[in-house]
From TrEMBL:
InterPro entries: CheY-like_superfamily, Sig_transdc_resp-reg_C-effctor, Sig_transdc_resp-reg_receiver, Tscrpt_reg_LuxR_C. Pfam families: GerE, Response_reg. One of its GO terms (molecular function) is DNA binding. The keyword Cell membrane does not apply. PANTHER family: DNA-BINDING TRANSCRIPTIONAL ACTIVATOR DEVR_DOSR. One of its GO terms (biological process) is phosphorelay signal transduction system. Residues 148-213 form the HTH luxR-type domain. Signal peptide: none annotated. This is Two component transcriptional regulator, LuxR family. It comes from the Bacteria. Residues 3-120 form the Response regulatory domain. Keywords: DNA-binding, Phosphoprotein, Transcription, Transcription regulation. The modification 4-aspartylphosphate is found at D55.
Length: 228
């Protein structure tokens, strides 16, 4: 069963979504909160969600900060961002902040539930209307990495192992269990990977890993298989 954290300022929407999700046997809302609440991260730690659904409407320029803090509080949680617009700019900001999915609210609850399940299985999802611009922005920011014929040569042996498992769609505790290391060690290596590859998110790092370090051109189907 997927544990969910709902972060939205529209209480009626949260209540309606919670009621709808209560009919789904594989989904459970462990908590809900306003994005501006001072105890949001504490509540997130207690809820320990598999997926956090976050409305970015009131966050504006704080999107990156809030999502990063959520990741620190719940490193294994994947984030689905809700938006009130199809403007690609906030979608790019969400991707840079590490969101696994970005969904306009107009798509409705049924599609949101489908995206939650996809993200819960380790996939990423962005709508076709903005996907091209998101991938283009991430590719441009990634830029050339490494040296010589192996752009990933800047990584240590252990960092390559972590990145390899990450590129399979796993993260956090799953990576730790597979490599027999602690979650804290995974976090340390992940930070090192992002810094050395000059990328902002695990999605970008996984894109580079799956392309052997070359700047990839990914289809919508392919990007769904990558972690955030």
């Amino acid at each position: 069963m997927l544990r969910l954290l709902l972060v939205d300022e529209q209480r009626m929407f949260v209540e309606a979504l919670t009621q709808y999700l209560s009919t789904e046997s594989d989904l459970w809302v462990s908590d809900s909160a306003y994005p501006s609440e001072t105890d949001l991260l504490d509540r997130a730690r207690i809820a320990w969600p598999d997926v956090a659904v976050v409305d970015i409407a009131i966050l504006r320029n704080r999107v990156h900060e809030v999502l990063r803090r959520l990741e620190e509080a719940c490193p294994d949680a994947r984030v689905v961002v809700l938006s009130s617009t199809l403007d690609p700019e906030p979608a790019v900001r969400a991707a840079r902040a590490g969101a696994a999915a970005w969904l306009p609210k107009e798509r409705g609850i049924t599609e949101l539930v489908e995206v939650i399940r996809l993200v819960g299985r380790g996939h990423a999802w962005y709508p076709p209307e903005v996907l091209a611009e998101v991938l283009c922005a991430l590719r441009q920011e990634a830029g050339p990495v490494g040296t010589g014929d192996d752009p990933l040569a800047v990584l240590s042996v252990r960092e390559r192992q972590v990145l390899g498992v990450m590129a399979e769609g796993k993260r956090g505790r799953q990576i730790a269990a597979e490599l027999f290391i602690s979650v804290q060690t995974v976090r340390k290596h992940t930070r090192g990977i992002l810094t050395k590859l000059n990328v902002h998110t695990q999605l970008e790092a996984a894109m580079l890993a799956n392309s052997g370090g070359e700047t990839p051109v990914l289809s919508e189907t392919t990007v769904r298989a990558l972690p955030r």
